[in-house]
């Protein structure tokens, strides 16, 4: 190749590269992956975290000087905000965790250390299913597991769940809302059955906390597990687990270490919340999550839910118009409330390709695959293809939904 041709080729490459950069710069991005993590975060979250790192820096429960006391007081305020948000009575039984997966393991492992029977939903996330699978495969004291029917309660009949309860049943452990289909289970009715039968009810609210009202008492919960970074609009690496007093008493600690309290003892403290909070916590995360819960308090969960419902409804209406022309499969049962999540199997088009083109050509961020919930995809018949998931949040706008629908139509054309 001559120097002249090489130069021309390089000029074309540079021009094409510059055009792509300019096009990406001009493209207004649309974030529809709220089911993975919320974005943007609540106003003030980043500033609160930066303020702690830059200006405070002290640890929690590790000193009696001013800054250490300020951190301790802030953690109490976070627990109190969680109580207010979830109709819970005791801030001392609000455990600060590194996230929902740790919170669930912290409950599941000790509860079933000597075996027993557990009931789950057919749509569980791996945060519940994987620890249970380990316990199923355990050589000593393996657990047994049952799954209630997918259509439970749609006709008002909960007897299929009641029929699964056995003398050795210890708990129902389940998600509140599916991270694949967005459908919300009737947990208040399920909690009532658990209370009547004397078994514990552990709710994974990873896809509902912050944008669907949750009443700990009305739902008859033994434990409520939440990540900070999804509907609670806070940072990653922090979560909350709320424990009913009698349930907390029956659980031995799952993690061990320093707490800053009763340091002379070689065993974990028996009092709350220290019993379940070894080690130095994610204090920047505490500052960020406290600020996020303050924002949700001020806006109101019902307001957030109403906005998300409008986005969800508009998106579904647009999809049904497209569906008349193209083959789309949308998992989920009609008649159930939705958390603001729609998954699509594009049947005649590769889902990964659709997801990639949405991002590269339209700046629309979604998620493709099994979404850490293979049980749900087996239930929906999408275990081979997966789905493209669109998940909405409080900071999404109606025009973003319309742009996304137009992009889907163009891709399918």
Structural write-up:
By secondary structure, this protein is of the alpha/beta class. It has 13 helices and twelve strands. It has helices at residues 3-26, 45-56, 66-85, 100-111, 126-137, 159-162, 187-197, 245-250, 283-299, 301-323, 351-362, 374-380, 398-412, and strands at residues 30-31, 94-97, 116-120, 143-147, 169-175, 200-204, 223-227, 239-243, 341-344, 364-365, 367-369, 387-391. A seven-stranded mixed sheet has the order 2-8-7-6-5-3-4, sandwiched between helices. Strands 9-12-11 form a three-stranded antiparallel sheet. Helix 2 (45-56) packs antiparallel against helix 9 (283-299) and helix 11 crosses helix 13 (398-412). The radius of gyration is 24 Å and the shape is globular.
Topology:
Blueprint: H1 3-26, E1 30-31, H2 45-56, H3 66-85, E2 94-97, H4 100-111, E3 116-120, H5 126-137, E4 143-147, H6 159-162, E5 169-175, H7 187-197, E6 200-204, E7 223-227, E8 239-243, H8 245-250, H9 283-299, H10 301-323, E9 341-344, H11 351-362, E10 364-365, E11 367-369, H12 374-380, E12 387-391, H13 398-412
Helix pairs in contact: 2-9, 3-9, 4-5, 10-13, 11-13
């Amino acid at each position: 190749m001559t120097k002249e041709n090489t130069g021309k080729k390089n000029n074309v490459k540079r021009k094409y590269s510059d055009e792509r950069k300019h096009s990406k710069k001009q493209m207004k991005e649309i974030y529809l992956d709220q089911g993975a993590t919320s974005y943007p975060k609540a106003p003030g979250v980043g500033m609160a975290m930066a303020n702690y790192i830059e200006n405070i820096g002290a640890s929690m429960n590790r000193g009696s000087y001013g800054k250490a006391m300020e951190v301790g007081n802030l953690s109490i305020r976070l627990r109190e905000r969680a109580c207010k948000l979830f109709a819970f009575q005791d801030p001392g039984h609000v455990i600060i965790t590194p996230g929902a997966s740790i919170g669930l393991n912290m409950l599941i492992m000790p509860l079933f250390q000597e075996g027993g029977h557990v009931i789950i939903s057919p749509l569980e996330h791996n945060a519940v299913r994987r620890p249970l699978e380990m316990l199923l495969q355990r050589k000593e004291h393996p657990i047994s597991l049952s799954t209630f029917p997918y259509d439970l309660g749609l006709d008002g009949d909960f007897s299929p769940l009641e029929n699964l309860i056995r003398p050795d049943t210890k708990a129902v452990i389940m998600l509140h809302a599916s991270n694949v289909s967005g459908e919300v289970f009737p947990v208040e009715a399920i909690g009532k059955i658990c209370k009547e039968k004397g078994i514990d009810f552990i709710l994974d609210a990873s896809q509902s906390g912050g944008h669907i009202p949750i009443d700990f008492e009305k739902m008859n919960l033994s434990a409520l597990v939440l990540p900070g970074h999804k509907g609670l609009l806070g940072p990653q690496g922090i979560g909350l687990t709320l424990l009913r007093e009698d349930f907390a008493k029956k659980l031995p600690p799952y993690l061990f270490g320093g707490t800053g309290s009763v340091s002379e003892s070689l065993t974990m403290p028996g009092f709350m919340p220290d019993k379940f909070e070894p080690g130095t916590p994610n204090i920047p995360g505490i500052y960020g999550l406290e600020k996020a819960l303050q924002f949700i308090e001020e806006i109101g969960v019902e307001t957030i839910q109403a906005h998300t419902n409008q986005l969800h409804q508009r998106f579904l209406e647009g999809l049904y118009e497209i569906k008349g022309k193209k083959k789309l499969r949308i998992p989920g049962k009609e008649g159930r409330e939705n958390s603001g999540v729609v998954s699509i199997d594009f049947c005649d088009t590769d889902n990964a390709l659709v997801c990639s083109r949405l991002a590269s050509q339209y700046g629309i961020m979604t998620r493709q695959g099994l979404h850490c919930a293979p049980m749900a995809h087996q239930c929906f018949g999408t275990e081979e293809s997966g789905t493209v998931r669109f998940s909405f949040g409080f900071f999404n706008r109606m025009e973003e939904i319309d742009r996304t629908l137009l992009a889907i139509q163009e891709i399918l054309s």
